[in-house]
Design brief:
The chain is of the alpha+beta class. The protein contains eight helices and eleven strands.
Length: 226
Amino acid sequence: MTAELETLLAQNPVFGRLSPDQRLAAAQSAQRRRYARGVYLAFAGDVWPYLFIVKNGQIDGVKESGEGRQLVVQSLKPGSVFWGLAFFRDGAPMPVSLAAQAESEVFLWPREHLLPVLRAQPDALWALCQAMISYMQQASRVVEGLAFQPVAGRLATFLLAQFADYGEPAMTRNLTLDQIAAQVGTTREQACRALYQFSDQNLISITRTELELLDEAGLAEIARQT
């Protein structure tokens, strides 16, 4: 495991700033964790003093309302680093829940194991600050979309990003309506209605197993609407 993890760390903007000896020490102290789809790593309100890097799968940062609605504010894919606020501030609660969107594997460190290593390498801490800024910008875009962009625009933006990640005009339907709704901050019913409106407009094709992009320019035009 150590050699595999060392390679993953060397390719990461934060851990890549450590010396080879520091990366080896970090790799040796890492805890490997596997999570089935839907399993939570931590819940909002938990005091969770850990930092982790995603090896495979996807971990989502999720906000939940009192009525049970969900909003995905962060999606962490392989190579992403994330942390609980208590990793840096004693007793700070988690602002979001962390849930495995797919079968996932992460390497995780308790604060007391990793923070001394990061403190010894200012370049790594600076890279971690840059990651924090990137996450703040992403969260700001989510909030801005909720405030100013209609559901159809948010869904179009999400679908275009999904097709771009997939790399093909047709992709497997691996998300439920509830999961799509959580990604764009709406209800299951509104997400379903918007999807079939796109289908009626010949922007996408929907089957039981696939979504196909038919009119990228048309979908992009809807994504630009505010």
